[in-house]
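thought: fold this chain, then report.
action: predict
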Amino acid sequence: MKQSRLMSLVESVANVIVGYGVAVMTQILIFPIFGLHTTLAQNLKMGAIFTIVSIARSFALRRVFEAIRMRTAK
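observation:
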């Protein structure tokens, strides 16, 4: 069965939200091990930056693979 556009959007948004939460929690747990001490606000900002970079990376890879698929479909 094909996934609807709405469900694709819901999945993408859920993925971003979960990824953001995982990034922030990982920072809170791991940074002190390496002697890095940050505030919650700093962790939230860094998590947002990591999330934006992740979205850009994911989009770029999707476009590359779509270009490969289109090239091999000819």
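thought: worth noting. The chain has one domain: 5-73.
final: tokens above.
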